[in-house]
Structures are given as structure tokens and as C-alpha cells.
């Protein structure tokens, strides 16, 4: 299953990688083409790791403030959400959940 989903680039690890690659391209250490290849591999590796390495199940509920479906991607904005993992419950005032359609072949 080939997925080119760039969701993970907006996480702190993705923005740090992007910043580092930008700096390397700017100072001439790597080519822009290599930077793009690294980002594409990052997307693939993150997706693969989350599918195969993460075994924890989490359930959540909250007030659905807004939702949107665009370009095979769901975006949900939840207010007063509760996330439950085993016996642990985490409460947050506002959370944005972005879900990429894995069958969309993005």
C-alpha cells in the first residue's frame, strides 16, 4: 500500500526535520532533490511505524465542534474531549484530529 500522506510533517518531529533540511539546502550541504527524497521517506517511515509498531488502543469522546472531508482527509475539531487508554483518562479542552484515507492512495 503506497501512501504519500504528509500529515506527519506538521508534527514537531516533521517541522524539525523540514527546518534542518531547509538549512542544509540553503548552505549547500545537500541538494533540494535529496531533501525532497528525505521528506518522502519520512512520510513513508512514519506511516509504516504507526501501522506496525504502535499497539496501544485509545478511545475518545467529546463535543464535535466542526468536521470537514477534503481530498481524502478528515479533519475533526473536538471540544472537552476525553482520551482513555487502559485505566488512564486525559482531558483536553480542544483537540484537532486529522485522519488520512489510507485507501485513497495519496
From TrEMBL:
It comes from the Eukaryota. Keywords: Nucleus, Transcription, Transcription regulation. It is found in: Nucleus. Residues 5-50 form the Transcription initiation factor IIA gamma subunit N-terminal domain. Pfam families: TFIIA_gamma_C, TFIIA_gamma_N. Residues 61-102 form the Transcription initiation factor IIA gamma subunit C-terminal domain. Its main location: nucleus. Gene3D superfamilies: Transcription factor IIA (TFIIA), beta-barrel domain, Transcription factor IIA gamma subunit, alpha-helical domain. PANTHER family: TRANSCRIPTION INITIATION FACTOR IIA SUBUNIT 2 (PTHR10966). TFIIA is a component of the transcription machinery of RNA polymerase II and plays an important role in transcriptional activation. Belongs to the TFIIA subunit 2 family. This is Transcription initiation factor IIA subunit 2. It comes from Ceratopteris richardii. The lineage of its organism: Eukaryota, Viridiplantae, Streptophyta, Embryophyta, Tracheophyta.
